[in-house]
Write a structure and sequence with these properties.
Blueprint (H helix, E strand, L loop, with lengths): L5 H6 L9 E10 L5 E6 L12 H11 L30 H7 L2 H11 L2 H10 L15 H4 L10 H12 L7 H10 L1 E5 L2 E10 L14 E10 L7 E9 L7 H17 L5
Length: about 270
């Protein structure tokens, strides 16, 4: 079991102090016990999961058999697919690349193949937010963008509850789906810890359906394991909201700030 000092909880927003970013929520739980180690901000309000949705979608993809392993299936970019992710979105993509480069069109291939009912049924069983893949009202676009500033909404508390189920292998999917999903989530070594996580970024729509790039959401969610005791995992979610357009994706800002804070923050986590 871990405890978190009050000084560390204050430090959780330090990396953003001089930037035009609001840290909406930082939440961390002991994965084994569910004990709250830190909870700052409004962690109960739901918002778009953006690309953090790729973690539950990977579980669904593997459990249904659409996804086979880290390298299969390989899918090709088609004209008209989302291409704003640069060269890594324009080439043939496997599940590991999909997660690493956050390829939106690969997600869309999975959801279109499965339809709306199957993923919604899984999301309800995961208790993942409102499990609503209907999309924007009147646009019939749920399988293309329900998770991107649209109908699917999840709170930071629900994110970490879901991640506890992933880490503890208690979600209602087969064990292979859990292990294969965990293998494709990005891992980073930070000091004496290994951090597994997924970024997410999205922007609200204006009345004319253009995007409001000044007020983006940025997520970083996942789990961290101390190298000497991998059974002592911490699950976490951080959500930010920008106050002006940023050069860097809000999700990357969120991840990089937490990575910078982690060496000091982790010293306050103790048995």
């Amino acid at each position: 079991m871990f405890a978190l000092s009050s000084t560390a909880s204050f430090a959780a927003t330090a990396a953003f102090a001089a930037s035009d970013v609001d840290v909406t929520c930082t939440i961390m739980l002991d994965a084994a016990t569910g004990k709250v180690l830190i909870e700052e901000g409004d962690c109960a309000a739901r918002t778009t999961p953006a690309s953090t949705f790729k973690i539950p979608l990977a579980l669904i993809g593997y459990d249904t058999g659409f996804l086979k392993d880290e390298a299969t299936p390989v899918l090709s970019y088609r004209k008209g697919d989302p291409d704003w992710g640069g060269a890594n979105w324009l080439r043939d993509t496997n599940p590991a690349d999909w997660m690493r480069y956050s390829v939106v069109w690969y997600s869309q291939r999975i959801t279109r193949d499965l339809g709306r009912d199957t993923p919604e049924r899984y999301l309800k069983s995961f208790q993942y937010g409102n499990a609503d893949l209907s999309g924007d009202p009147g646009f019939d676009n749920g399988l293309e963008r329900a998770w991107i500033a649209s109908s699917l909404q999840v709170s930071p508390r629900e994110q970490v509850a879901f991640l506890r189920g992933l880490v503890n292998a208690t979600l209602p999917v087969g064990p292979e789906a859990i292990e294969k999903t965990k293998r494709i989530v990005e891992s980073r070594a930070v000091g004496d810890w290994t951090i597994h996580g997924k970024t997410g970024a999205a922007f609200p729509r204006n009345a004319d359906r253009s995007f409001d790039y000044a007020h983006g959401w940025g997520w970083y969610v996942g789990w961290a394991e101390p190298n000497e005791a991998k059974d002592k995992a911490v699950v976490f979610a951080r959500l930010i909201r920008t106050r002006e357009k940023t050069k860097t994706s809000p999700g990357v800002l969120t991840r990089d700030a937490l990575m910078a804070e982690w060496p000091a923050l982790s010293k306050t986590l103790r048995p």
